[in-house]
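re: ur question from earlier - yeah i can do the single chain one, its not a big deal. heres the input i used so u can compare w yours
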Amino acid sequence: MKKQMISYFLLLIVFLFLPVIVNADYEAKFLADGTCPLKSGSTGNCFYADTTFKTLVPNSWWLDTGDPITVSTSVKPIPAPKSGNGSECKSTYSYVTLFFQNKVFKGYACTDNIKSATVTDELKKEFQAAGFPESYWENLAVMREAHPRWRFVAIPTDIDFKTAVDNEDVGNKSLYQVTNSKGQGYLSTKPENYNWDTDTFKYYDGTTWYAANNQTIAYYLDPRNFLNDMYIFQFESVSLNKETQTEEVVKATLGDSYISQFLPHFITAGDTWKMNPVYLAALSLQEVGSGKTPGKAVSGGVFKYKEKEYSGFYNFYNIGANSSAGGGATANGLAYAGAIKDGKTTYGRPWDTEEKAIIGGAQFMYQTYVQYSQNTTYFKKWNTVANYAKKNNLPYYNNFTHQYQQGILAPTSEALRTYKSYVNLDLLGNEYIFYIPVYKNMPAKTTLPKEGNPNNRLKTIKVNGKQIEGYASSNFNYKMTVENEVSSIKLEATTINSGATVKGTGTISLKEGENTIKLTVQAQNDDIQNYTLVITRVASDEPIVYPKVSEIMKTTTYVTKDNKLSNVSFSTSVANFKGQITKVSSTAEVSVKTNNKEKTTGNIATGDTITIKSGEDTSTYTVVLYGDTNGDNSISVLDLLRVQKHILGSSTLNGAFKDAADVNKDGRVNVLDLLKVQKHILGDSAISQK
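and the output i got, formated as tokens:
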């Protein structure tokens, strides 16, 4: 079967003659009309690596209806062989270029299937009357050319496309599975999902499912990317149609998988709840696996939920299998199947047989999704149908809620399984109706980001072997001043991710006055981040002016008294604190220590000592965060106990830790302070750091 398919940007009216070869390469589309003899079970035409017709183009696989290609006019078409591989084409082969997964592939494709023209006025009127914007027309035209009996129905969502994407780009609502760094370019780098300094993504389900980024979500939400043979069936209604959804098709869908032995139950489930049994089979394969051995969700084996062990339950669609607390996604699904999770017997639960699980699961989907207007695989994942349902007096759940899957590839995967079954049984000529969503203010097109790791941050920037003051990977601008005798510097930088590259380092000459130096970091996915250093070399007759430390501190919001430093936010990192000081005076040097050990990461906490040096002037302060009596940069029950023990005399707080316990700042540690700490922990009132 064809690759994990190309995104199709389609164009077609078929000329009655082949495209005229001109003196320049031209853009075209491919219209598949057969199978590739070199690949058993394929649905597309061969894309040959060379004129020996023995191998396919590696890694790009082969061509299907709608593939965008560039035809080379500098290479003459090659006559097709009369027998053997390549003879499936009856005319010539043209030399073409194919773009797939951000890579370029070149090879030979049958000229008969290369089509280029414009959409007819008749089709324009039809698509426009149906409610499809112009950006849909080319895609739909090639589908109509390949499949004249197919019908396309526009579903106006009345939602701005960007608004839809942003609403799906929340928490763990849209997950993407990644097993190596290659696909990390598809993942979210929002603060809640990614740590730039450690180059780690937060996983939400298992250890391979992560939040997708906005661009990736936009691509999979955009219906135009899937108006092609392989993926259009995510827009087919999941309601029963016995003409096309026969037992033979369901059997082909299940193949030789473990769950194929339950074919009769899928047929019964479809008949009972008027649902597409091909869809049910494809969904089950997507959710519990297509292997020849049973996955945990359908084995009936032992699982643990909330520290207790259970067995004998089945869940063929992973209903209720979210990644919330309890026992992991699969265990949560089985707890739902056994009515352990909610104690209810709806949908025929407990599902203690395979038959009950398959039929009861179909009932669940019909009564909770299909009846609420989420009647396609697409709308089951992306619930953007509420406005349409409301206007047509249909039941619905609010947009962006009540979504069956978290994985954003689920609709395409299920559609692909359905398509394989239909094509292998030669059913594509039947009539199908596709309900295709339309959004407001859609961009001209959406594309996937590049696959590689996105980290384009620096771990260190060193000038003459010393880390620059106030460095933080998220701070991209720095200033420093050097004496006149410093005519050049050695600039070094290291990247956080080993696959990233940095330009601009080396020995750099300095002129008198300001010198602007740029470091350019390029991530694996080609994202660029620039760091700028402005180094001022003072004139020969102009000495560097070093302000007093006390003058520097007056420009900040920090309170300094008796060598104590307070009014510090709990979110103040070491790098952020240093940056605030060096922003005031680029010549200042700042060090932070905990228990006399240098502290370079994390947040400032009670008991940390901060030394600031400006020229010959040096001051050292001890940090006080009111309420943080143990120096862990938080206020918790541990702090409450320490204050209580101090009051009772069972242990004593000293120095900065005693000052931190005096949360009302009256010079004493007593019950009033204890009550304030307690109220802070309970959320009744917050302790002020001023």
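The chain has 17 helices and 29 strands. not sure if urs matches, ping me
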